[in-house]
What does this fold into?
Amino acid sequence: MRFLARLLSVVVPLSLMIGGPSQAREWEAIKTSGTIVAATEGGFQPFNYYDGPKLTGFEVELAEAIAKKLGLKLEWRVVPFDAQLAALKQDRFDFAIASHGYTEERAKSVDFAHPHYCTGGQIAAYKDGPLTVSALTGKTVGVQLATTYADAAKKLKGLKNIKTYKGDPEAFSALRAKKVDAWISDKFTVKATLDKNPDAGISAGEMVFVERVSMILRKNNKTLEDKLNQGLAEVMKDGTYKALSEKYFKEDISCRS
Ligand code: ARG
It folds into this structure.
């Protein structure tokens, strides 16, 4: 036994030193390093997207404000949305902020901070297309892979087909090209997309479900979770959150209940 303990005390730290994956770290390690590492997608306007070469959006600016409150620099990792849960479990970053709605399925493998906005999934289609849940019967719906919109589409009865796309912009393009009859996405993303494409002839339709959106982090990283919640509470209290929300949505999109 003693031999085994000694062996482990040598072997374990060594294996940690030899180029293992970078860690989703404990709060103490983050604080000591002075930098927190966050993942987002960069394809989900107006929450996280590219304005030319610049990563920006409500969630990008919000995370930067939270990091500042915690006295940290923030370093971004841009990760495809459908890879984020797995990458988090592999410790590629400390947390992700990419509009993850709370689901019991996700909560089995990651933890959720307090919600930073409340929203829902909405149908979009051509003006003469299926703009309500009941009109979707027999139709093809396009959604982003691994999203709650994909989950919601699977639950709708009578759809002809569900087509999944790597990103939401691709799902919108498929709708424009009439490869799908309808697109389900976040109501604010639908609005931002339609505002940018006023001549597309596409409208926002019925809401399909509502959800609460949070930053996600590795399971049982309790102190980091507390710190993220504390940072969020502080930016909500001092008006930073409201200003950002007004900037991107012209309203306060925080969860009221
Ligand atoms: N809110 C949806 C979900 O929880 C979609 C999030 C998509 N995020 C993104 N960055 N593309 O699945």
Notes: The pocket of arginine is lined by residues 41, 43-44, 48, 81, 98-101, 144, 147-148, 168, 186, 213 (CB under 6 Å).
